[in-house]
Every structure is written in C-alpha cells, then in structure tokens.
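Q&A log
Question type: sequence-to-structure
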Amino acid sequence: MSLLDYFRSEKKTSASMAKERLQIIVAHERSQRGTPDYLPQLKQDILDVIRKYVAIDADAVQVQLEQNEDDLAVLELNVTLPDEER
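Response status: OK
Response body:
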C-alpha cells in the first residue's frame, strides 16, 4: 500500500495552505516594518516631478531604504523611463 501512496499526489489541506499564505504575509510585513513613514509620500512626490517632463506609470518608480549594521542608511531610487520614439 505504501508503494501506491508514493505515486499519489499529496493534497494540501486548507489549513496548510492558509499557514503558507500567512507566512508569506508575515515575511512581507517584516520587510516593510523598518521603513520610515515618509517613503510613500517621497515616492509620490518624485513621481509627480518626473511626470512634469515624461509620461510614466507609478510602477516605474521604486524607492527602497536599506540600513546596515553601521547605522548607515542608503536610499535607493530606481526610475524606469520609457523609450523615446524619434
């Protein structure tokens, strides 16, 4: 009987699926916990300034703040500009 069980696919219970989803949510929240409150507004302000000159989506601007063990904070800003058609 154990040989047949080997070939059968394991069906995940709803409890195990819920546990996995909760772990993903908790990991995401932990990654966002150390970020300052002003980052979303900073991202929006940068997006507004760039939109004065170039039409871009909100997803084109990404702002991240990294803090290392030396209490040094690094603000990383990535802006994906659209290709110009000439």
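Response note: DSSP finds three helices and two strands in the chain.
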